[in-house]
Design brief:
Length: 208
């Protein structure tokens, strides 16, 4: 047979028949798949709509529960007050308190505290007037002599705010004398405004 000769008709028919038989199952499968997809598509849309709608409702219903799990602000935290302060000379009772510490006498100057007073001085967490006295005495007596200077005192009926400096002379003479700043807040007892019920203060740092 020459290269340019035509293929006999019987051979062409055989080849065509084989090709059709080979591709027909795939064509039938694709047609069936497309038909099923068209028939199922509305159902899928409806199911998705229902599922997403249900999820949205559940999410909305869950939101109040999530909010309920978050601690609500208390009325105390939300309450805001304006307190006027008057800059005044340091009162005698406060000077007497510091003098007890500076002189290491630890006596009547501590009577400015209520019996159940609390003290948060730096890392301290002391409860009760006698505990405050005893712990300060232990801290100071074992290592130093102090001198407290109050340079500014701000007064209000229920809160006293003041600042100053503390000179610390250590018993160990190899430790240099320091004079750190001090800041203090004295909250007064509601039932007895002459007594301190809570002391929040800080001294220092004594070095960097």
């Amino acid at each position: 047979m020459h290269a340019g000769a035509s293929t006999p008709a019987c051979a062409t028919a055989a080849i065509t028949s084989e090709v059709v038989e080979a591709i027909q199952p795939r064509a039938d499968h694709e047609a069936s798949f497309n038909q099923q997809a068209c028939a199922m598509n509305p159902t899928r849309v409806d199911r998705r709509t229902v599922l997403f709608g249900t999820a949205g409702v559940l999410a909305l219903q869950a939101m109040p529960s999530a909010r309920a799990g978050t601690p609500a602000l208390t009325s105390k935290e939300m309450k805001m007050n304006t307190t006027p302060f008057t800059r005044m000379p340091t009162p005698a009772w406060l000077l007497a308190f510091w003098k007890e510490i500076d002189d290491k006498t630890w006596g009547a100057g501590f009577d400015c505290f209520a019996d159940n007073a609390v003290c948060h001085l730096g890392v301290a967490d002391w409860h009760g007037k006698e505990t405050i006295r005893a712990n300060l005495r232990t801290f100071v007596d074992k290592q130093m002599t102090t001198h407290h200077d109050v340079v500014e005192y701000l007064d209000s009926p229920h809160l006293k705010v003041f600042r100053g400096f503390v000179t610390m002379v250590f018993d160990d003479k190899s430790i240099p004398t320091v004079k750190p700043t001090m800041q203090h807040f004295f909250y007064m007892d509601e039932k007895d405004p002459a007594k301190v019920k809570a002391w929040y203060g800080s001294v220092g740092p004594t070095g960097f």
